[in-house]
Amino acid sequence: MQSMWFNTTTSPFLLTGFPGMEKAHHLISIPLLVAYISILLGNGTLLFLIRDDHNLHEPMYYFLAMLAATDLGVTLTTMPTVLGVLWLNHREIGHGACFSQAYFIHTLSIVESGVLLAMAYDRFIAIRNPLRYAFILTDTQVIKIGVGVLARAGLSIMPIIIRLYWLPYCRSHILSHAFCLHQDVIKLACADITFNHLYPVVVVFAIGLLDFLVIFFSYILILKTVMGIASRDERAKALNTCVSHICCILVFYVSVAGLTFIHRFGKHVPHVVHVTMSYICFLFPPFMNPVIYSIKTKQIQIGIFHLFSLPCPKARLIAV
To answer: What is the rounded CA–CA span in Å between residue 138 and residue 117?
Structure first.
């Protein structure tokens, strides 16, 4: 009996690609690979530009670098197992590797929410108190905010992931995705998982929802300040500095809300829809964030033109 217990708890988990579409995995992997490469190139280029261009050494762009690094982290965390399943049908993953992957995926999702909140704070200070902006958001303060965002995310996720190591797994070892998620793993445990069910709900409400509400109310105050500016051109200029950030907020929270909605209320929806939504949630924000900032931020545009030695249409950019 003891030997049987040992075998069931140490058997590796089995990852799943697109159920019922196994013969098309190689074809499905093509758009995913293109998305992964685009994310790596887009966010990698942003990081390189911000590091290399002294004109981008400002709090706004430091926070953008944090966002790009977070998006790269999410991509590099999920990409190996996804491509391993789709290309090589390599489905087995050990418990330790699975729990570690789940930890980084969930932690980085909270980091992204925290970085978006920090970017909202940056815009709030820049518009509400522009004369003290440089004194409030010093390099030291930016570093402290970044460390705080990382620590909050890492510590908040740690309790549920640590507990996974001590739970027995005596049910089917088949996971629902090509990467490990806490909500997937916990379904396979044959023990009391009340804590692992309730704690994530608390985290989502205490962190995710609170971040969104703070961002929302900060923009109400920003809008109130902008509307008080006499010059129409100055109002447009102030709002234009927020457009990129607002787009990134919408991309992130709409993706998360869509995935949550499908998981909660789409029980009768085909499983392939759940899987597809999870890929959209993890790939769409990292893919779109560099695109948004490249289109809407003239300093990033100029940096890209210089990086690739292209003629820079300065007159047009300045007029934007």
So the answer is: 17
